[in-house]
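Hey L., structure's done. Input below.
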Amino acid sequence: MILSWLKAARLPSQSYILTPLVLGLSIAQAQGGNLKFEILICLAIYSLCLQLYIIFANDYADQETDALNETFTLFSGGSRVLVTGERNPKEIRNAALLSMSLCIALSLYFSLASQSFLPFVLTILSLLLLFFYSYAPVKLSYRGGGEFLQMLGVGLVLPYYSFFLCQGNSYPWELLFVLLPLNLSCGIATSLPDQPSDKISNKKTIAVSFGPLAAKLILMFCEVVSLVSIYILFPAVSQTLLLGHILLFAIIALQLLCSNGIPGKLRLSVFVFLSILFNLSVQVWLILFFFQVT
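Output:
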């Protein structure tokens, strides 16, 4: 039973939520923000609860499409616990509702601590982004535009959320030119292995609407835009960590080599892994830079 819940939780995907939150903390710290221990602990719990809500609610909403998916990977296709019968839909729905409730409760604490309604509002927005992604009447993952909701959630809401809680002085909004295309590329990447079943289910992902090759080109263009934006808007960052430059250009080169991968084959899984690695590497690069700023 415990193993099936761990499988359902897909804990490695916590990196998608925790990394942008840590990025916001690093920016606040660079500006002399107040990183209170109790806020940091609650923020870590909030990160886990938000990730579980997203995973469970999406699994519940996509169970029919996931049942058709024969090209799922470690990075896509849901947790599979509903498809295999390891857990039943009611349990996953209740787990999603519990996780959502904990997020709201923590946001109320954050609002009281900060004496502002903004944490509560941002939490409701975060929860709605997943609802709009997976559930009627909006259901943008099926109508088109779901990747942009992911982009807004992890590229805008989460970094600013932790930045605000730790009382940063002035959020660098130009960072959106880095984070938005960066996270759009990751959203496209994780949908690539699911393209066959998404097409059958009439999901209007970018990979379905434009085809896998075009989706990969859009994805890599977004990565380049993100990297160029760092060089132009944050020259101080681009002058640090030579290893960071080498790693990011190496990832793009390897992606080109794997760009002919198809769903169900190892080459595409490697391509998706490299896309996720690029996303996390850029954010870690920024985190290390801002944490070293005094």
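The chain has one domain: 2-292. The longest helix spans residues 266-292.

-- N.
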